[in-house]
Specification:
By secondary structure, the chain is of the alpha+beta class. The protein folds into 2 domains: 5-156, Electron Transport, Fmn-binding Protein, Chain A (Pnp Oxidase, Chain A, Roll); 167-509, Farnesyl Diphosphate Synthase (Orthogonal Bundle), CATH 1.10.600. The chain has 19 helices and 8 strands. It has helices spanning 5-14, 52-59, 92-103, 107-114, 136-140, 159-173, 180-196, 203-230, 233-236, 258-282, 287-299, 314-335, 340-360, 365-370, 376-380, 382-405, 420-433, 437-467, 472-509; strands spanning 17-24, 27-34, 36-37, 43-48, 62-69, 78-88, 121-135, 146-149. Strands 1, 2, 3, 4, 5, 6, 7 and 8 form an 8-stranded antiparallel beta sheet that branches. A hairpin with a 2-residue loop joins β1 and β2 (27-34). α4 packs across α19 and α7 packs antiparallel against α8. It is elongated, with a radius of gyration of 27 Å. The chain starts with a helix and ends with a helix.
Amino acid sequence: MSHSREEVLSLLRGAEVAAVATVSGDRMRTRMMHFAIDDDFHIYLATMKGDPKTLQMTNNPGLSLLLHLPASDFSESQEIELTGVAHFVRDPEERQKALEITATKSPVVKYLTETGNSDALDCIKVEPQLIKLRVFREIVQGLPPSVIEFPGSGEVVNEWGLLGRKVTNWYRVLRPSSLTASLVPVLLGVAVAFSQLGGTLNWGYFLLTLLAGVLLQGGTNTINDYFDHKNGNDEANREFVRPFSGGSRLIQLGLLTPVEVLGLSLFCFLASTGIGLYLAWAVGPVLLVLGAVGLLSAFFYTGRPFYWARRGVGELLVGLNFGPLMALGAYYVQTHSFSWLPVVAATPVGLLIAAVLFINEFPDYAADKAVGKNTLVVRLGLRRAVVPFAIMMVAAKLAVIGGIALGYLPLAALLALVTLPASVMAIRYAASHYSRSFDMAPANALTITGHLAVGLALTWVFAFQGAGREGLVMMAVLGAVFLGFIAYLYWNVEHQKRIFHGLKGVVEEK
């Protein structure tokens, strides 16, 4: 028996959720999702930005939806299978229309649109290629399914497009939002040198130092993804909170192979080493020692045989490398000499990046413990681990005050204490929600914001010193931009917190 297009469309409109299957490497992944449909059989989906589903659709837009429509008489039960191609809706008018009809089915979309937070959503349009309707009674009678075909629909395979997706995945696995961990100490070390040299810099050396630092961290991020996969850590991790913990998940999503991630990591390390060798030849061989410490710490953070993270010293090494040592190296490249000044200036930054790593280990606690990755959080337990986190946060502020008291830092460095309220809030969130990863996410975000704010504040102070009267106006503008940027970061943390707590309320009501 053949069923009309109108009948199939009516059935699709009457359903609220479908099993959505996407391609993940050589596997299929399926999840139940709310959906809406228009008169032309276009399916609309909406999901939070950064969701694994959207990453999979970006990499391979082909997908399938399956709906089961039960009936009181089992023989009348129906099943609809839709195969199509996903496109992200970019046109504002079409996006608004799509979100409006999707909100009639999804309470999450309804909440976000009603509260003016629809920008947190990705809107996806599925262009159908084939629809099949099966009725159980007809199947047992040997009748074929009702089929609706959509000729000419779909996406033409484009090799350049495939290459572009691969490059995008390589970019994602570097975790670019985390690269501030290397940018901040390099900028600070160079700013200290700028102030000591009377406002002059070797800009070529500065850019090379910055690039070497970013490549070192990129190599660190990717090698950790590779070894955490090999050690079974990321596969065991079910409580990670994006984007703070659990790695990039590109291997687990099937978007990159382990060998591709390893290859990218080795490229980053080799490129960083090449730049370091050149700077050591041009400036002084002492840089080789700092570079070797950074490289060994990065590669063996999760790599064997040392596996620093499992030995409980990973946080210490991260704090040293992405704090005083990197700042000292950047300072030495410019001045060709060593000084305690960049070390003292970068000590708060080192403490805060260690705190960032430490608080991000809370959501990974169960998985780390299961595979023997005995970080400090695993060794102490979640409740007791709140204490050293609080100590690191407070110690960073005391390091600023101590640096001023000892005469290393100028009085203007008190600007870095603008982050004190954020630190207090982060400690309170950690103390209240240490065992609930979702609720503790603001602590992760506030700690990262605090690290960036303190580092940029200290960088501005030293750059202001070196700029002199000639650069007074420019530095004042940069200072205003800095304060505005930090205010925005704090607002964004609170904004995201309200969104997710609101969503949690919607889910609990259901």
